[in-house]
Design a protein that fits this description.
2 copies of one chain form a homodimer. By secondary structure, chain A is an alpha+beta fold. Helices cover 28% and strands 26% of the residues of chain A. Chain A has 3 helices and 6 strands. In chain A, a hairpin with a 5-residue loop joins β4 and β5. Chain B binds a DNA duplex through α3.
Chain lengths: 130, 130
DNA sequence: GTCCATGCAAACGATTTGCATGCGT
DNA sequence: ACGCATGCAAATCGTTTGCATGGAC
C-alpha cells in the first residue's frame, strides 16, 4: 500500500491529524463502516465529532480517494480506492473480501451505449464461519 | 408477466386494493422507488399513507415477492422477483435495465466456502441519453 | 368474528447543515 | 492572514413503530 500521506497531495484537502487517522484506519481494516471509523479514531482524538468523520468521508469520496460499498443487509462501508474488483460478503460474520473480476459479464443489451463502471457483490459463507 | 393477484396466493397476505395497486405499480414501471410508488398509488387512494407503502414493501420482500435493488447514487428501488439477473443503470436518466447474467465471474478466492447469491450493477449511459 | 391492514402521528437512526472556533498552509 | 477543518447542536431525511379504526376472509 502506498503512503497514506501522498493520497492527499494533488487535492485541496489539508493534512489534518484527524483526516490522516481516518485514512489510516480505513487502510488498516480494508472495509469499514462510519461508526467503526469513528470509534477507532476517537481513541486518538477523544473530542472528534461524528460529523467530522462524515464530512471527511464525503470530501475523500469526492476526490475519489475513497470508494463506498453497500452490500445487502449491511451498513455502507468504505475502502481506499483501488483498481476495480468484486466483493465477497460473508452472510454470517459480515466480513468483506476483495476478489479479481474476470472481464466477462458483458451483457448483450442494446440499450447500453457504453459502460463506465460496475459493482459486483457475491454473498455466501466464508471458510472461517463454516 | 403472470397475474399480479396470484402472487399473493400462497401467502398469508390479504389482497387489499392498496396492496394490489402497489404490486401493479411496481410491475408497470419495472423498477421503482418508494416515493414514486406512493405518489402513483395516491392517485387512486388519496388517503394512503407512506407508512402503508413501507409496510407492504417489507411484507412483500419477506415473502420474496419483491426484490430490492440499490445502485450507487440512487434511492433503493423495487422490482417483482424474477430469476437472477444484472442491472444496468444509466448515470444520466437513472433508468434501470435488466440483463442476463453469464455464469462467469467465478472468483478464485480461497476464503469462500460457497456462494448463495449475487448482485451485479453496471453503470453507463443508455442510448436514449447519448 | 377474527386477524390482518390501514392511516395517522410520533419515534428513530443515519446523515447533513450552520455556525463559531481552531489550525494547516 | 486566509481559508479550509473541526466540533457541537440542531435540522433533515428515510424508515419504523404504536395504536385506534377499518376491511378481508
Amino acid at each position: 500500500m502506498q503512503n497514506i500521506q501522498n493520497l492527499l497531495d494533488n487535492t485541496s484537502l489539508k493534512k489534518t491529524p484527524q483526516r490522516l487517522t481516518i485514512l489510516k484506519t480505513i487502510d488498516k481494516y480494508g472495509h469499514i463502516a462510519i461508526e467503526d471509523i469513528y470509534n477507532e479514531v476517537k481513541e486518538q482524538f477523544p473530542s472528534i465529532s461524528l460529523a467530522t468523520v462524515y464530512k471527511n468521508i464525503n470530501a475523500l469520496k469526492e476526490e475519489n480517494i475513497l470508494s463506498e460499498i453497500h452490500p445487502k443487509d449491511v451498513k455502507p462501508k468504505f475502502e481506499i480506492t483501488k483498481k476495480p474488483h468484486g466483493h465477497f460478503v460473508c452472510k454470517k460474520c459480515g466480513e468483506v473480501y476483495d476478489f479479481e473480476l474476470q472481464n466477462s459479464c458483458q451483457p448483450s443489451l442494446d440499450v447500453i451505449d457504453n459502460i463506465e463502471g460496475s459493482e459486483v457483490y457475491l454473498y455466501g459463507i466464508c471458510k472461517k464461519c463454516k
